[in-house]
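Sequence only, no structure available. Ideas?
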Amino acid sequence: MANSRKKRSRQPAPSLVEKVSRALKCVVRPGDRLLVGLSGGVDSIVLLDVLARLCARLGFRLRAAHINHQLSPNAAAWARFCRAACRERGVPCRVAKVHIVRANSVERAAREARYAEFAKEDTEHILLAHNADDQAETLLLQLFRGAGVKGLAAMPLRRRRVITGARGRAREVSLVRPLLDVPRVDIVRYATRRKLRWIEDESNLDTAYLRNWVRHDVVPVIAQRVPAYRTTFSRASRNLGEAAQLLDDLARLDAGDAMARAGLAVDELRKVAPARAKNVLRYVIGLRGWPMPDADRLEEALRQVLTARRDARLAVDLGGYALMRHRGIVHLVPRADPRGEANVVTWHGEHEVELPQMGGVLTLARARGAGLSAARLESEVVTIRARNGGERLQTDARRPRRTVKNLLQEAHVPPWQRDRLPFIYCGETLVCVPGVGVDARFQAQPGEASIVASWSALQTNLAP
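Reply:
I predicted one. Tokens follow.
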């Protein structure tokens, strides 16, 4: 009797283009603006090629950014190559030069410089070309560094990240890695079949870098014994990612309503066990996208936050930023000195003046009867300056001039923000400190054409 059961037909494996298309459909909508980070290596060239082919089908708008780190003698040639690759595909490309300080980690410094440049682009999604091999390598690297659950969760397909734009304002973008489940061998196979050209960064062969040592010396040994290591590592990362998400959910519960108002209240941290309090700090540091301090430094920061006197001016150095406490609220503050930049800007009537050296945007809005007298401002050149100390302001004609220092204290302006406020001068006269007051001689009369100054600083509290 003949066997009547039909053989199951095996579905062909989806092509690389189809894999990327499926990944993007989960996060990208028609009309969205996508920015692809283009190094010129095979991974990013393949991602650029695939996205250019999908652009019309999925209806998104595509741009590319190449960051010249100036670390290789071939850097200029790589920039020209990336421009040409984008031109061939009709994709706009911006090339930016950055200067990398060769500190403890060149890789970290280069990554931070890239994100600073990506932040200047007006986009909803930043697409990166990390693949399955990168994911496995990252898991091993994090193990070597003694990372916690979040570090071992490695890289997700999509992650929301707060970045600081050129205007000094924090905003959230989506980091998307559509090749994350694709092995490097499949990427190279696609590039070969499509006869693509790419560059080879000579530094990728230098095993003095830990990642390169893992890639060239460690992973091949693992692959001999456990050929499916990419799959098992990816599964482990997903499991750890779920655990990390639960820790974030717990952090939001522990922070309570305080995080949704002005920042993170010290009293809220005191209500939970030390391990949960540290989890809250890790969560809010992660919201800013800043490097996570090591466990000892984070524990010391928590200890000082919880035990310092209520009136103490607390500042704990966490590397590129500091953890500060003011009036019972914890803040994260970038470590930058506005006085180190050009500190005099002339106002030419603009509605907004970007002051990245002070970390924000000064708005000068037209109004009537409030703020500064427009006619008085026309008497001399108006400039915006950084604080030098010793300034005085008479905000009430019936009272004497007072030091700005005292006015700032009365306004409860946190100490670290006082040197970041823009001071508005007419000629050599201080006429306004936004949020503090206007000099009595320059205050607008009822119904008079006026200018209202307001300051939008880079967010430094820990609210999401």
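The two ends are 69 Å apart (CA to CA).
Hope that gets you unstuck.
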